[in-house]
Amino acid sequence: MARKLVVAIVLVIVAAATATADYVRPKPRKILDFPWKRRSSSEPQQVHISLAGDKHMRITWITDDANSPSVVEYGTSPGKYTSLNRGESTSYIYLLYISGQIHHTVIGPLEDDTVYFYRCGGEGPEFKLKTPPSKFPITFAIAGDLGQTGWTASTLDHIGQCSHDMFLLPGDISYANYQQHLWDTFGELVQPLASARPWMVVEGNHEKEIIPFFKEGFQAYNSRWKMPYVESGSNSNLYYSFEVAGVHVIMLGSYAEYDEDSDQYSWLKADLLKVDRNKTPWLIVLFHAPWYNSNKAHHGEGNHMKAVMEPLLHAARVDIVLTGHVHAYERSKRINNGRSDPCGTVHLTIGDGGNSEGLAEKYLNPQPEWSAFREASFGHGELNIVNETHAFWSWHRNDDDEPVKSDQVWITSVVGSGCLAEGKHEFS
Questions:
Q1: Does the annotation mark 298 as catalytic?
Q2: 275 to each of 31, 125, 175, 264, 318, how far by Cα in Å?
Q3: In contact, 426 and 414? CB cutoff 8 Å
Q4: pLDDT (tens digit, 9 = 90+) per residue, 315-354?
């Protein structure tokens, strides 16, 4: 009888341990293989699109032929192009690498929430894009630290299954790490998604590619991923802003000067002063290195930028901050100055897109009071802003290649929380 009791107790303990066991985190996957393809020297490659001011879109592509024209034909019916716009092109040399011709052409004005068919350079395949809506609801897909591994492919596949209007990437894009041909393979990898919906990106530390005394940083990033910095009054492609469907989005540069006497700080203050919460009730900010991070990886790296810029963001009543850098997911409560604050900002770290360096699995314990959810797994996020007061956030873990929804929460905007009026008195 006693032995049966012991066995029963053991079985209960094993069952309890199994029920409460930690999620088994996936291991890194290998870098993807990109076989060589035979193609015409003027065939468009690595096509991606981004916003370029109100009702305009920038089409970017690369050709091997330096004399290929930077023209885009487009219209609302397949094969029937009613408009043609001309743009500009550039190229760069990095050590022994010579880039193809990188074309940037702005098209528009375009109708909101409309499908357009377009062709680059006067030949090659037809592409299809959809412009964002002019009003709520709007859905953003978000993933940082993408790279080009098997997990990246899984993440991109899941994002493709998400009915989103725009993709946001808070830094660490291709993980080329000085190997310039990896920028080209990354462009090919993301073309199916990036040619159909706007991709709005900001730089991370892996975009630096600085060679001291010989090569300045961000050459490939600035040449290939031109964002609407001029349209937003910035003097650097490393930080800018844009507006879409009732949302003002600010992309800050963790690796550009940001002290109070810097151009970025002055630009940020001026940009925040322009925000009209009647027109854009939601205010969202992205940058690479998180300010609130309870993971041991990169812990405290964002503290200096936080000390300088958080007072501005809090006074302006920013709703959500999205970051990368840490290869894991974490969601904070509303927070300001290191403490929970009902009028603070929700911080979301989502640097888990699929990079080759693996996951950041070691967290600080105990979990800080301000940290609401954290997990080291690959995945992506979706932010569905329903109206001026409510948004639904969900994080989708790449579990056995299925997008499992592992964290979700409704977020009330500062407009809906009663904090906005107080913030207006603080910000000047």
A1: yes
A2: 42, 40, 34, 17, 11
A3: no
A4: 999 999 999 999 999 999 999 999 999 999 999 999 999 9
> CA 203, CA 58: separation in Å to the nearest integer?
18
Rounded to the nearest 10 degrees, the angle between the axes of helix 181-194 and helix 150-161 is 20
For residues 129-142, one letter each, b for 16 or more C-beta atoms within 10 angstroms of the residue's C-beta and e for the rest, the string is bbbbbeebebbbbb
Give the whole-angstrom CA distance, residue 1 versus residue 18.
Answer: 26
Asked whether the predicted pLDDT for residue 136 surpasses 90, the reply is yes
Instruction: Confirm whether pTM is higher than 0.70.
Output: yes
Examine residue 366 and say whether the peptide bond preceding it is cis (omega within 30 degrees of 0). yes
SS3 374: strand
* Tokens coding 38: 């035979």
> To the nearest whole percent, how much of the chain has pLDDT over 70?
90
Cα 25 to Cα 150, 165, 230, 260, 407: the distances in Å are 15, 30, 42, 41, 16
User: One of 48, 104, 206, 298 is an active-site residue; which one?
Assistant: 298
pLDDT tens column, 189-215: 999 999 999 999 999 999 999 999 889
